[in-house]
Amino acid sequence: MILEVAILNVIPELADKFERNFKIASGTISKMKGYISHELQKCIEEESKYILLVRWETLKDHTEGFRGSKEYLEWKALLHHFYNPFPVVEHYRGIDLG
After folding, report:
1. pTM score of the predicted model
2. Nearest residue to 50 (alpha-carbon basis) of 76, 74, 14
3. For 70, how many CA atoms within 13 A lie in the half-sphere containing its CB?
4. pLDDT digits (tens, 9 = 90+) for 43-67
5. Of 24, 29, 85, 88, which has the maximum CB count within 10 A?
6. Residue 80 CA from chain centroid, whole number
7. Is there a contact between 54 and 65 (Cβ–Cβ < 8 Å)?
8. φ and ψ of 41, to 5 deg
9. CA–CA distance, 60 with 94 (Å, rounded to integer)
10. How far apart are CA 71 and CA 69, in angstroms?
């Protein structure tokens, strides 16, 4: 499993609209091949800052499958205009602690 992590700095006066659009966009991403789950958390200290966590089966499911799809264009149209600056997206994998 791969964990996609993005810190989203939303333009403060657009935060409510961002949250409404994110609910719509959630339906889009959740239908993608390799999608496992996602969550959006709102920062307590900075109310217009969020963290997005998306679990994918493989890195390619996100970087090639989702980002190369028509669904990504819908995601982009719904969300990308809310960010300042545009987020850096990173991917993580679990480590065996046993």
Report:
1. 0.95
2. 14
3. 0
4. 999 999 999 999 999 999 999 999 9
5. 29
6. 10
7. no
8. -115, 140
9. 17
10. 5
Q: Helix, strand, or coil here: 35?
A: strand
> Which ranges in 6-89 belong to alpha helices (H)?
15-29, 59-60, 70-79
Q: Tell me if 33 sits within 8 A of 65, measured CB to CB.
A: yes
- The predicted pLDDT at position 71 comes to 97
Q: Map tokens 């065996």 to a residue.
A: 96
Residue 5 neighbours by CB distance under 10 Å: 14
pLDDT of residue 82: 98
Tokens encoding 41: 């958390």
Over residues 69-97, mean pLDDT = 97
Structure tokens at 69: 């799809």
Give 7's contacts (C-beta < 8 A, 6+ positions apart): 49, 50, 51, 87, 88
The DSSP symbol for 61 reads: I
